[in-house]
Amino acid sequence: MQVSIRRYLTPWRHPPTGRSQDRRVSLLSVRSAAGQVFLLQVLIVVLLVVAAVVAMVLQASRDALQQARRESVVAAESFANAPGVAQAFRSPDPSAVLQPRAEAARKRTGVDFVVAISTEGLRYTYPYPEEIGKKFVGTIEPALEGRTVIEQAGGPPLPTGDGTAVQAVVPVTDARGTVVGLVSAGITAKNVFERWLPQLWITLGAGAAALALATVGTTLVARRLRRQTHGLAPVELARMYEHHDAVLHAVREGVLITDADGRLLLANDEARQLLDLPAEAQGRPVRELRLPEQITRLLTSQEVVTDGLHVAGDRLLSVNKRPTFPHASGDGSVVTLRDTTELAALSGRAEVARERLKLLYASGVGIGTTLDVRRTAQELAEVAVPQFADVVTVDLLEAVLRGWEPTTEGWRQLRRAAIGGGQQGMPVYPLGEVIAFLPGTPQMRTLQQGRGVLEADLRNARGWQKQDPDRARQALERGMHSLVTVPLQARGVSLGLANFYRTGDSPAFEPEDLSFAEELAARAAVALDNARRFTREHTMAVTLQRSLLPRGQPEQDALDVAWRYLPAVAGVGGDWFDVIPLPGARVALVMGDVVGHGLHAAATMGRLRTAVHTFSTLDLPVDEVLGHLDDLVVRMDKDESTGDAPDGHEGEGVTGATCLYAIYDPVAGTCTMARAGHPDPAVVGPDGTVAFADVQASAPLGLGGHPFETAEVNLPEGSQLVLYTDGLVEDRTRDLDVGLDALRRALAEAGAGRRTPEDVCQVVIDALGPARPSDDIALLVARTRLFPRSHVAEWDVPSDHAVVPSVRAQCREQLSEWGLEDIAFTTELIISELVTNAIRYGTPPVKARLLCGRCLICEVSDGSSTLPRLRRATTTDEGGRGLFLVAQFAQRWGTRYTTRGKVIWAEQTPHDGASAATAHTPVDVLLEQFGDSAL
Questions:
Q1: Which of 81, 227, 259, 423 has the fewest CB within 10 Å, making it most exposed?
Q2: Could you tell me if 89 and 181 are in contact, meaning their C-beta atoms sit under 8 angstroms apart?
Q3: Co-location of 522 and 588 in the same domain
Q4: pLDDT, tens digit (0-9, with 9 covering 90-100), for 234-282
Q5: CA-wise closest residue to 391 among 496, 473, 506, 495
Q6: Does residue 565 come out as left (phi exceeding 0), alpha (psi in the -120 to 50 range) or beta?
Q7: CA–CA separation, 252 vs 418, rounded Å?
Q8: Of 772, 820, 767, 769, whose CA–CA distance to 793 is shortest?
């Protein structure tokens, strides 16, 4: 409004000096705007100070409690593990030995008390000797079981005063691990909560400083406002506004004022009528007013316009535009509009120009709405009919339709990609047909010259008629009389061409029409090229991702598996899954999702999938696998986020990934799993009940340093484990909770417990899969099988070499029951060597187990974690050939660690693998070992 006042009113004259001074109120008066703003600032500062104090108290209290818990545990553990403490508990007078040490430790560590406690809960030490021998106040039962207890409890007086104590109770164990006593250390609540008091004065001081700044700032702003208004009172400003408003809305010329950000500041009545502006237009951005494209571009640009003609609806407007200040062009613009529609009626060209402008605007809106090449070509044909042509055909190079780079060799044959208009009555080439244009045709001349060709009268177009004489004759008979053909060029390369035909009573094309057709084709070509490039990248990404996903199901005895993978329409993401057989008839299931889309996400997915295979080969626990993956993602992110990356590199590092890793054991019927930011798997019982596994959620991969929790779930035979990515249950229109409920209903209604995994996959995809997924969807359904107990044989092996023959005999009898006499000799040799090594080098308990499935698995476990090493024994060695023989006769062998030691396993293929195993006889193998002088 100040802009308008300066432009249209006379220069300001200072008010008379005799004005009464009682109208000049105080700068910070409540009646003034500055005073009201000041009061609001004071209120905000007070509220912020109060909130800061409350937050500080709560945060400091919590931090102090956490620090107290840590210090208590450290002090208690340090005292409990100090040399001689365990022996002191067993001494005749523990208090005499421990009391001075406890007081010294209390003063040295800074805690308020260190108490030694007997296993019956009696104090051996205390800061006040009279409390020694009394019952300890606190929980000691978990500590007697070897665990650490942290709690808040009251107790006898302390040197620092009474109050609730934060205390830790830890066990004291002897060399054999027996709990001989307890140690408690802690800090009283008084010491904990007094730590935040010094910060209170800092917060209050900051609030006072903020109030002072608010006072100074408000005063300065009030003075500036008075200078800007030259001391005018509100009544005088209102009178000036009324005069200005009366003049502005009385003129018969539209006036618009916009600021530098393209926001409409003012519009008079005439401008509202000419542009059909809504009532609430003032104050809104110009781009939100849905004005014609040219008017919007004019109002938002900084160019100066003099007597320009622009179409707005059915009106032709004469437009003038100037900056609000001649020397400050960035402050906004003033636009005046005058209706010249009556003048335009004198010339038919104005109407034609208006229609062409509308058609160009429609082409910008209607062409390129999708990234599909054929659909974009069809949109071009539909936009041009019937406003510009009666029949439109679009022919594209085969390479463009496939997403490849177009070449001039492709001009020899083009494929009909779109047809628009009355093609039913016209003999044009059908959709999808390959057309080879002859050299003299308008189409080939267009491709060769790189510009449009006009055939105003097709009866004289010899080249066009020569292309297909019969079809051309029929077209002329049915009224087709004029043609404009233009190339579809993008980045200087022709993608194809567009043919515009007029029939019947439509006027023939003129040279002005040729220019318009070229402009229309140029806009469409950009959209076609974008669609072509997207098609290429999408195809490449889908091909890459599908090549990295499993090709088929691996051989295993534990699960019946089926899966589905649906790539996103807008771009392939990084979803992946895997089924990995593990030793001991176990199977690992993996489901992961890399953040982002495109080739970078797919390549990252391949790297993570390869890493999972590597870690599973090492047979690591599920939480360790996720821990290694987390480290890998962190390293990948650091490597790809360095400043040495080339310009335009897709993706600046790995922004994160989620993963669910599960191991199913068909012998025990249990599934151990852990997840890193991934959705919970669904478990469908044999009776059809659906539940989500309660696996503790951990941070996504790539954050680093976060532990991963492990959960073990019992799965009865016939249960189904459903793994999926978030694209199945979450999108822009559906929250995660809603998607999980929909998945639960789909599994329950499908009767997943009675269906095959393949059927369950299809039912879930039909129920939840969107028609055009915005994110990748991966789904894995696994139905469990239990290993028959009749196919499992286990023996406890005493630590005595004399029992090895009996183990071989039991193994031979079991193989005879299973009908595996053909591999009995090699199996006896393998289990004999493994048991002998376990007895000689391992620690009890030693167990042997045979599993008979698609392969025969021999397992020997012991309590040692020492890894066996395969080596070649020299001729003078008396031993060292056991594992070499196992490796020779088994198809696969290896070692995996357990919570109680390790397991050495070996696999043999029954029947089919017998000949391979005996290709080298045992005698030949031994002779090679003993006779090689190089060893």
A1: 227
A2: yes
A3: no
A4: 666 677 777 777 777 777 788 888 887 788 888 887 777 777 788 788 8
A5: 506
A6: beta
A7: 49
A8: 820
Give the span between the Cα atoms of 201 and 190, in whole angstroms. 19
Residue 257 lies inside a defined structural domain of this protein: yes
* 80 and 193 share one domain: yes
Pick from 329, 345, 361: which residue ends a domain?
345
Residue 59: alpha-carbon gap to chain centroid: 32
Domain count, the chain: 5
**Rounded Cα–Cα distance for residues 493 and 529 (Å):** 10
Asked if residue 255 and residue 272 are part of one domain, the reply reads yes
Exposure string of 187-207, with b = 16+ CB inside 10 Å and e = fewer, is bbbebbbeebeeeeeebeeeb
> Per-residue pLDDT averaged across 137-163, rounded?
79
For 299-323, the pLDDT digits (tens) are: 878 788 887 777 777 777 778 888 8
Answer yes or no: is pLDDT of 933 > 50: no
Burial (CB < 10 A; 0-12, 13-18, 19+), residue 377, is: buried
How far is Cα 209 from Cα 215, in angstroms, rounded to an integer?
A: 10
Residue 691 located in a structural domain: yes
Higher pLDDT, 912 or 429: 429
CB 558 within 8 Å of CB 585: yes
Local confidence band at 30 (pLDDT 50, 70, 90 cut-offs) = low
Chain segment 181-192, per-residue pLDDT in tens? 888 888 876 665
Q: Are 387 and 355 in contact (CB under 8 A)?
A: yes
Q: Do residues 761 and 821 both lie within one domain?
A: no
Mean pLDDT over 849-877 rounds to: 76
The domain of 858 spans 790-911+922-929
Q: Structure tokens of 118? A: 């007997």
Pairwise CA distance, residues 306 & 286, whole Å = 21
For the chain, how big is the Rg over CA atoms in Å?
Answer: 43
Kindly state whether residue 859 falls inside one of the protein's structural domains: yes
The Cα-based distances of 800 to 240, 803, 828, 844 in angstroms read 112, 6, 18, 10
* Cα–Cα separations (whole angstroms), residue 123 to 58, 88, 759: 34, 14, 66
Reported in sequence order, the residue ranges of 791-918 that DSSP labels E, i.e. its strands, are 792-797, 846-852, 856-862, 892-898, 901-908
The domain boundary, picked from 749, 784, 819, lies at 784
What is the chain's mean pLDDT, rounded? 79
Q: pTM of the entire structure?
A: 0.50
Are the beta carbons of 852 and 832 closer than 8 angstroms?
no
Tell me: the pLDDT tens digits for 662-715? Answer: 999 999 999 999 999 999 999 999 888 999 988 888 889 888 778 899 999 999
Residue 239 is assigned to a structural domain of this protein: no
Residue 641: pLDDT band (50, 70, 90) is low
Give pLDDT, residue 926.
46
576 and 681 belong to one structural domain: yes
DSSP designation for 701: B
3-state secondary structure of 628: helix
307 and 273 inside one domain: yes
